[in-house]
Amino acid sequence: MTDVPVHDVPAGFERAKFSSPFLDMAGPYHVRSDEESIVVGMRIHKGQINHINVAHGGVLGTLADVALSLQVHESECPRLPVATMSLNTNYLAAAKLGDWVEAYANIDRISKRTAYCSGRIVCGDQILMTMSAVFAILRK
Which of 21, 122, 130, 137 is the most exposed place for a label (fewest CB within 10 A)? Predict the structure, then answer.
């Protein structure tokens, strides 16, 4: 098994500007803005593979949380600070070493204090995960 360079990123994606020590370790993440949403993508690398040679479930779970929360964060100006209240994931297929995966997120409902989101993670035409989350909006 060979490692695929994480810098092999499809056209239209830029390195994400959000950062924390955990997200730097979990990624790297890349973003692309579509007409209605932000797509978060990443290349599965050797450090994310588990003992059965697929991406660890936590890799996709973290990507789900990142994509859903980013969609809410970027939905208003000034940007909304958010905290995850719940995250539900359905693992449908595995990501493998070298796969480029993309997370798509939608805001289903947003109020002054709470946002409800859903989405999916795909690799090409295959759906790897569906997800939904509730976020607390930490308005001042």
Answer: 21
- Per the structure, the count of domains in the chain is 1
Single-letter residue type at 23 = L
Domain range enclosing 82: 14-137
Going across the sheet that includes 114-123, the strands are 14-15, 30-33, 38-43, 100-110, 114-123, 126-137, 82-91
CATH code where residue 113 lies: 3.10.129.10
Report d(CA 27, CA 115) in Å as an integer. 25
The 10s digit of each residue's pLDDT in 13-57 is 999 988 888 888 888 999 999 878 899 999 999 999 999 999 999
